[in-house]
Amino acid sequence: MNGNTLYKYRSLYKEDGSLNKFTWKLLFNGEIYLSDFESLNDPCEGQIIPRYRDITKEKILKIHPWMDTMPYFNDIDWKSEEVVTRIQDILTPSIKEKLKKYGVFCVSSDCENDLLWAHYADSHKGICVGFDIDKLEKISGYKIYPVKPEQKRPEVEFSDDESHYKNFLIKMLTTKPMCWKYEKEYRMVALSPQKRNICCFGAIKEIYLGCRIEKNKNFNREDFIRRLKKVHPLCVIKEMRVNIDTLKIESHHILSK
């Protein structure tokens, strides 16, 4: 992570040439949008169900006392794989339903990642916005968690109170397959947000222009930078350039004209 800064990559325009309203609201209104997990691009989102460990009869009865009336309940071998799987199957639908109430805002700790510029910033024609983490959490009221790439299905301890649902859901929303490791991702996670749009204007500290931003049709670079400086007078504004020797993109301060 670059100090206490996290980055959001965005395109400026849609494929049809119209403005990307979410990007412009972010740049000029300081507005971020909390997405639902079903709109994210990883097919495993919401599907990586952690395995429970330490399931006991006492914990089950504290959460679901009615189970004590089930036939042969007291004869169950709580350490058997079959029981773990069965309890998992019973609780998973309610957990997935709760998951729909969450909102997430995805960011990265890397502002010079060629692949992120290509995938999320319109093939380097977009922008990247840097947020002060502490200010972003304070203004939004939501916590930011690191996303952990895993090679196998994660585990969470089975708790005897409702907190296990939250821990379970956070684990689901912050676990991805190893192939996504390059994103160096973090996520703001919001349970039942009152609204999906949050104004975090005071948390924006850096703005980067993609190295191909001028390839946008009818794009006026000088006017765009002038507008950014007017709205963000204390914000660091840089541009990305290709270093032919290292074959990497690098950030550079924009010289005043």
Automatic annotation (TrEMBL):
The lineage of its organism: Bacteria, Pseudomonadati, Bacteroidota, Bacteroidia, Bacteroidales. This is DUF2971 domain-containing protein. It holds the Pfam family DUF2971.
